[in-house]
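Translate sequence into structure tokens.
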Amino acid sequence: MADTTFETRVEQHRGELLAYCYRMLGSVHEAEDLVQDTMLRAWKARERYDERKASIRTWLYRIATNVCLTALEGKQRRPLPSGLGAPSTDPETPLVPAFEVPWLEPFPDDPAERAVRRDGLRLALVAAMQSLPARQRAVWVLREVLEFSAAEVAAQLDTSVASVNSALQRARAGLADVAEVAPPDDPAVRRAVEAYVRAFEAADVTALVELLTEDAILEMPPVPLWFVGRHDYGAFIRRVFAMRGTGWRMVPVSANGQPAVAAYAPDAEGVLRLHTLQVFSVVDGLIAHTVVFQSPAVFAAFKLADTL
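Result follows.
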């Protein structure tokens, strides 16, 4: 096949390959590098590709899987604060970032990438996947999310169908406790997030707390601190307003197939400056989990404006 045709056929899979590498690594920036490596390897091996043996998509995923597994060798897993220790009960705990921890990053949704499957991208699920052995992680994503057959996955991993099925069973067990959440386009989800935004912008902590589940979680990497329950969640939000003032504005975005907002806080001159990216999980019409990211790398990945 002509090189231009090959390049076009390969490039159309870039978006879903990025999502795959992100699920494997938990980092958008590392995933971008690995996709680029995958594309380069595919280009160099283009003369050896035989479409009679596998579709170009299956072939690319074999390359990407090997690239990811190599990248994961000897790496620390990427956690959220709730995966590292017990929750705090003191809203006045000093906010000291732990930059040495390779924190899990959020994944920016791109509406133009219609080929990207949003299932298997939820933050809590990706965080849980980081605790699985790398090959189990690959098997689960390839089988459960991307729906490759057991035989295709066995070929991609140079193993047997029996080994793939065994790894999938263990991976399912490891992810069994990850709660389901409603999709962002669910009307109840939209109402809950819109009400949360109104309450936050009004600095109405009482109204905000009423929108939370009883065991709602709030965490904020790179600070290794998290809270659970309405009372402690609300107490920390009161501290935020005491420290940063009121008059915040929130701009809707989307991350990991979940509703999210870019939060802007006023500075001393009243200029609204980018403060955090907040990603929500909604269960039964209430906010169940909020992950608050404050990282220049995350802001850059989402192309967020510095000021409003």
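Note: The first strand starts at residue 212 and ends at 220.
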